[in-house]
Amino acid sequence: MTKGFAVLTIAGRKQDGVVDILAQRLCLSTHADRQLNMRLFADASAELFLEAMSITDKSSETKKPIQQQQQQQIHTDTGETNQFLDRSSHIRDDKAIMKDLYNRLDSLHVILRGTNEVLFATTTDLALPTLKNIIEDESLISLFNTGGGDATTQEDILKKRTFIGRIGEQAVFATFLPNDATYDGSYQSCYFGNTRSRAPLLNSLHNELALTATAYVNWQNTHQFCCTCGAPLEYIHGRTCAKCMGSKTHFHWPRQDPSIICLVTNPTKTHALLARSPRHKPYLYTCLAGFVEGGETFESAVMREVYEEVGVNVDKDSISYIASQPRPFPRSTMIGMHARSSLDVDMAPISIDPNEIVDAQWFDKEMVYQAAKHSDEIGAVLDPKVVEANQAKEWEGKLLVPSKGVLARKLVDHWLEDD
């Protein structure tokens, strides 16, 4: 058994003596770790109990059976709910609709500072203040009016909001602040965090919002002029498209560079080949990755990159697609693959490229499984400060792999769950 679930139910006796279900929730887990699942189910039970108590404490006129409300599913790997981002590309060129959305006080905002920080509410949720919050809350007013050598004001910044879609009936915008914008942290205890290392811990919806906003700010910062004729660009359609001011006929949209990331195993799939790059702290190992070159297939890129970086030949017929993930740092899309080494020996000898890789090793399943558990306990293992803070604690310098939410970890988990 590789996954777990629990159906949580709270029942109560009415005044007439009839026992009825007060609350019910399905709690899902992506793994079969008993200890972690017991903690997960206990936390979910506590939340459900508080939810039931908050409803039964209301006046009898407003009481409604909880089971009649929409039940929420908890997904431990993403934390996602039934909400999703509707990118609404079909309305971007409708000026009347867009004007209305830009002026709505209930519109939500992903706030970025520079190109690599986003405003968090919690570890798993972004802060998504409404337009009303931004123009009325003193701490946000101060944030929007600080920093920037060009004396950028809140009004100037709000004019350059990028429309990234709708959640239900609410519009969602990305709002970009200068790198040196100062923030006192007083808005609902929200904080700025590094998008690259902390976004993977967000629930799936907020992760998509953070990465989409990051993709647009990186694109707009690096695309000020038409790459065809050199004329200035004007951003249209909610600032999701750039129109050449010279020819008036050249249009540009955000580009994504494909890259592959692959978990290579030995032929019997008992060991995985993981590597550490110079940018990672010691003990953090991950899958091999690289950009796809012009005229190259994803499969060919896997074979080339693996051989170039660790000197291992891959069996072309074993290459399979697992999943993909946007990585707007600055504009990549990662294609996740699995593959097996092609040599007859169970674990092929490794010869690293020192310009790309610090170390690479074959790790057995049990060791990688334990590394995944350690990584989950630490959290944002891609953040060096978080890792260093745990070195003197229970971790004690053991192997780490990327945290959940990162494509490399999805590839690792897929292999761990493969019998």
Question: Your description of this structure?
Answer:
- With 419 residues, the protein is an alpha+beta fold.
- It has three domains: 4-75, no CATH class; 89-222, Nucleoside Triphosphate Pyrophosphohydrolase; 257-416, Nucleoside Triphosphate Pyrophosphohydrolase, CATH 3.90.79.
- Helices cover 28% and strands 25% of the residues.
- It contains eleven helices and 17 strands.
- The chain has helices at 34-56, 95-103, 131-136, 138-144, 154-159, 195-198, 204-222, 298-310, 365-378, 384-390, 407-416; strands spanning 4-13, 19-29, 73-75, 108-113, 117-120, 162-167, 170-177, 191-194, 233-236, 241-244, 251-252, 257-265, 271-276, 288-291, 320-327, 332-340, 359-364.
- Strands 12, 13, 14, 15, 16 and 17 form a six-stranded mixed sheet that branches. A five-stranded mixed sheet has the order 6-7-4-5-8.
- Helix 9 (365-378) packs across helix 11 (407-416).
- The protein is globular, with a radius of gyration of 24 Å.
- The N and C termini lie close together (10 Å).
- Mean pLDDT is 85; it is low at 55-80.
